[in-house]
Amino acid sequence: MKKTIANTTIEIGRGDIASQPDMQAIVNAANAQLLNGGGVAGAIHRAAGPGLEKECKPMGPIQPGEAVISGGHNLPNKYVIHCLGPVYGKDKPEDKLLADCYRNALQLADKKEIESIAFPAISTGIFGYPTKDAARVALETIINTIPGLKYLKTVRIVLFGREDFEIWKNALDE
Ligand code: AR6
Q1: What pLDDT digit, counting tens, does each position of 42-53 carry?
Q2: Is the pLDDT at 1 greater than 90, yes or no?
Q3: Which one, 26, 45, 47, 156, has the greatest CB density within 10 A?
Q4: In sequence order, what DSSP letters do the residues of 43-55 get, joined into one string?
């Protein structure tokens, strides 16, 4: 499932965020301390090796909505952009903070002249953000941010589950 906006293609795919070798950057659904964790953060840190945590630790803690960049270490990607999503029901307003994540990550990527980036569904796991609402906020933000970027050609959303994949596909269709 693809959609092109101002020369940038948005793709919705299924898979593991830590196995996206054709992307220059991947995004981590991080914790504030930028340490190893569960879900996406666990998969990324496992594949990257201990050097990633060592590089990230001094950059933490970060705030909800913030994004920071590191190297990819043993990952096939040159960069990892770490975003702290809002905890649903706690960090408010959730929709603004989630939008900040996607916008800040995309702008940071463009500053580094990154042409391809893969996102997981930030905040929709342990942080409890409902998938359908998160998909709408994320896609709206991506679509609105793309025209202001110079280098980015591909934005991929990588969904773990089949149901999540269907929800995001429908959201992009709308
Ligand atoms: N690839 C792609 N998507 C995945 C993967 C994977 N390998 N693993 C899980 N998902 P989460 P959050 C999906 O919990 O809600 C961590 O412990 C998952 O099904 O990783 O932002 C951190 O340390 C869900 O839809 O991120 C933080 O403390 C989505 O990715 C906290 O969890 C996000 O799930 C962050 O929570």
Answers
A1: 999 999 999 999
A2: no
A3: 26
A4: HHHHHH-HHHHHH
- List the domain boundaries for the chain: 2-173
pLDDT, residue 3, reads: 92
Q: Ligand 1 pocket, 164 CB below 6 A?
A: yes
4-24 confidence digits (pLDDT tens): 988 999 999 999 999 999 999
Give the whole-angstrom CA distance, residue 99 versus residue 127.
15
CB 66 within 8 A of CB 84: yes
Ligand 1 pocket: which of 17, 40, 46 to mutate (most atoms within 8 A of CB) = 40
**Right CATH for 2-173 from 3.90.70.10, 3.40.220.10, 2.10.10.20, 3.50.50.60:** 3.40.220.10
Q: Is 138 in the pocket of ligand 1 (CB under 6 A)?
A: no
Provide, rounded to the nearest whole percent, the portion of the chain with pLDDT above 70: 100
CB 3 within 8 A of CB 9: yes
Sign of CA dihedral 63, 67, 70, 71: positive
Q: CB of 154 within 8 A of CB of 118?
A: no
